[in-house]
Specification:
The protein is mostly beta strands. It has helices at residues 133-140, 176-183, and strands spanning 2-4, 8-13, 17-22, 34-40, 47-55, 66-71, 76-81, 91-93, 98-104, 113-120, 126-127, 146-151, 164-165, 169-171, 192-200, 209-210, 213-214, 223-230, 233-234, 246-249, 253-256, 262-265, 290-305, 318-319, 322-324, 331-332, 344-345, 354-367. The protein folds into 3 domains: 3-120, Sandwich (Jelly Rolls); 146-228, Ferric Hydroxamate Uptake Protein, Chain A, domain 1, CATH 2.170.130.20; 246-367, Sandwich (Jelly Rolls), CATH 2.60.120. It contains 2 helices and 28 strands. The strands form 6 sheets. Strands 11, 12, 13, 14, 15, 18 and 19 form a 7-stranded mixed β-sheet that branches. Strands 16, 17, 20, 23, 25, 26 and 28 form a 7-stranded mixed β-sheet that branches. It has a 5-stranded antiparallel β-sheet with strand order 1-4-9-6-7, with no helix packed on it. Strand 21 and strand 22 (262-265) form a beta hairpin. Mean pLDDT is 88; it is low at 125-134 and 139-143. Pfam families: CUB, F5_F8_type_C, LCCL.
Amino acid sequence: ALSTGDGCGHTLLTPHSGTLSSRNYPGTYPNHTACRWRLQAPPGTSLLLAFGDVDLEPSEHCARSFLLLADSQAGTAYGPYCRNAVPATPLLVTNSSSVTVLFNSTSHRSGRGLLLSYATSQHPGTHYSQEHIRGLEQALGPLAVCFSVYCPAGCKGIDGDIWGNPSQGYRDTSVLCKAAVHAGVIADELGGQVTLSRQKGITVYDSAFANGLHSKRGSLSEKRLLFHRACHLPLPACGDMLEVAAFNASSWWHEVDVLGQDRAWVAERAALGTDGHSWAAEPSSETAWLELDLGTRRNITGIITKGSSEHHDYYVRSYRVSSSRDGKNWKPYRGSGAQEDKVFEGNSDSHGEVFNAFIPPIAARYIR
């Protein structure tokens, strides 16, 4: 799958799902641009396309700004689409594993452009591009308590807000698949099947920074969304912390304060929830690392980091992760199918907690 042209906006395309939008979406798309996306699914499967938004300035026969989809295998085309000729249904089921999406703009005054997502026929479940719970209620009925949807890759970058966090759940007006990325149940670069339930709302939804996304602090709602492994099987709580048998580090800071008192910022102080100061590397260190020995091989699904708010405004803004089964041979974490080491977004202040999920999980005894 690939994209070319000067009219391309947020785009994440994988063989199994993806999300694409025109440049500036949801702001007005620019004049005299074009973008061509070629979507290619695995052989033997077909593409399902979901129209999240098609808002192109109207013209006769959509001859000016338009969206056109071509199925080269079947020799058929869908569109052209614009504001006065929108798709008949929000979901287009093709019989082809290859579809070319063409967006073209000329001089115009208004229009958000387009938001489109896709998945392949091998993924069961209802498929949405920009999900709000009211859309789910229309599809599933108001009495649906637990349901499953397929979230395409690229949900993290679409427009829309989320309120809440993984432990509390999310306000029911949150963009669903964006909330799933925030909760760490899917990786944005992969997408995947999501199982969730609607439960009674709560008074306040606390904000959090997780998996590269900020959620907002939200007020009372009638319902909230909770993610599950399967219906009626809740996700393991992040409060189920793994025991650390020993801490090690590349170095530690031996601080002498203004009163001449010693303070040792040793590795053992890195445990989350430790009173007072934390671990810190020796100030001149350029390639610092912190090592956790879990005592035995464990399945590690995520990490929570926090700065040291004791006297110093210290925190780690980004980091990489490596794992080892024997403490000698180290494997960098890259995520599914990635060719480069994954860089995790860390903290932006010394007091807030930041959660990052490992998808897939890490099976190891040692973590750096």
